[in-house]
Structures are given as C-alpha cells and as structure tokens.
Amino acid sequence: MARIAWPLLFALVFALTRIPGLLPPNFSAAYAFAFCAGVFFRGALAWWLPLGTLALTDLALTAWYAFGLGYDVLSTPALLALGFNYVAYAALILLGRCFKPHSSLLTLLGGGLLGAILFYLITNTAAWWFNPFGHPEYTRTLQGWLRALTLGASGWPPTWEFFRNTLLSSGLFTALFSVAARLTAPAESPAEKDPLPAAQEPEESAEPEGGPQPA
C-alpha cells in the first residue's frame, strides 16, 4: 500500500501547486515531479502518474483560461506548443531514469536543475516557433529565437525571469521530493537486504551410494 500511497500524495501536492495565482509564474513543482518520478517510481507508474496528473490539471487550466479569462488557448498553435510541454516532461522522466534513488541529494539536485534547463529550452523554443499569441518579436530567425529565450515579448516580463523561477522551483521541489521519497519509501525486507546464499553442494558421505558393499 505504501508503494502507491506516497506517489499519489506527491501527485496531489503537485496538483494543488497548479492552482492559478498560488505561485509566481513558472515557479512550479512540475519539473521536479516529472524528474523525480523517473528516479523514484518503478515501471509504468513513472509515466502514467506524472503525465496523467499533468493532463488532468492542464484540462482544468485550459478551461479556466479559455472560458474564465477569455484567452485564446484553444488555437492550433497554442495546442501544438502545449503538446511540446509533454515532450519536455517525457524528457525529464527519461532523464530521471538515468539517476539512482540512492544517489546523493547533491547529485539529484544537479539532475533536477539540468532537467529545468532542458524543459525551458524545449518549451520556449516551441513557443517561439509556433508563436500562439502572434508576438511580432518572435521572428523565425536566430535573433527571434534568442529574443524568446531572454527578453520575451513586449508587454510581458522578460523570459529570463521565468527561467530564474524555473531553476529555483526545480531545485527546491527536487530536494523536497527526494527527501520525502527516502523518508516514505517502504523498508526492505530481510530477504531483499540479505540475498539467500548460493546453494551448497551436499557433503560427501563417507560411504558410497547404496550403503555398505559386500566384501
């Protein structure tokens, strides 16, 4: 029961952090959740739990932005850019698979920060290429791409601030998730700690098989 209870608890905590306005822009547990799922969750759980939680919360957020705030988030470019978010999340899970649950906290923190950089590059490149909100600064040139990665569009905070929040939140939540995962992981059974010794060959009998032989 504990093997599924604590991952579900992580998913619930992550879902709550996606409530609009609760955290600063791009300050999210999503990056750390995807990365740590790859590190600590086993089998298919590492895929369906983070991606499923993201999909459900994205449906709620899309409805809120589209019908509550009137943003055009259902256009084809916007949906394509959103799709690349899932490419980035899958990349974070794969990155987490390259780390071991017993790796040092510093090593996992480095992995979480690397994942944040990867996520930022993938998603901002997709936002630049598909340009769902029609920013004139996002020309399909090297200059337009660099603008998308650093200053962003006019009238919005510079994207380097979003990158800063991405790094800070990824580091914070990676540390929190990693510590919590180790504290809540089920204890190993004695059999898992001390594997059975190799089968020993039967001792040779002093007498040949079949009992004493007649003289």
Detailed description of the structure:
The chain has one domain (2-185). 64% of the residues lie in helices and 0% in strands. Helix 2 runs antiparallel to helix 3, helix 2 (30-40) runs parallel beside helix 7 and helix 5 (105-130) crosses helix 6. By secondary structure, the chain is mostly helical. The protein has helices at residues 2-17, 30-40, 45-68, 76-97, 105-130, 142-150, 159-184, 190-193.
Summarize the structure.
The protein is mostly helical and 215 residues long. The chain is 64% helix and 0% strand.
The biggest beta sheet reads:
none
Stretches with pLDDT under 50, minimum 5 residues: 189-201, 205-215
Share of helix among residues? Answer: 55-70%
SSE order:
HHHHHHHH
Estimate what percentage of residues fall within beta strands: under 5%
Distance between the termini: 67 Å
The average pLDDT score comes to 85
Structural class: mainly alpha
- SS elements, strand count: 0
The domain count comes to 1
User: Rg, please?
Assistant: 25 Å
Question: Quick one: overall form?
Answer: globular
